[in-house]
Amino acid sequence: MAKPVTFPTQACEQLNLWLGGYESFLKCMTPGNFNWFLHTMLYYYTKYVWGKQQLQKEREKRKIQDDASDAEQNTASDYD
Description:
- This protein is mainly alpha-helical.
- The protein is 81% helix and 0% strand.
- It is elongated, with a radius of gyration of 23 Å.
């Protein structure tokens, strides 16, 4: 029996909502232009989301480093 495929429905809903803003523009396109536009927008949207995720990871890493630095300073001042 095949294992069911998990599908990121929340991501799909967000993407559909985002593309909904272009609906009137998309309705006027030929199938070829629609296909090109859709793939181009998906590419840029993916870059945007990945960039936000990377920025969030960097912020979390910086916060962990700052917390560790603060803990070291607090520990050192306890012995003074």
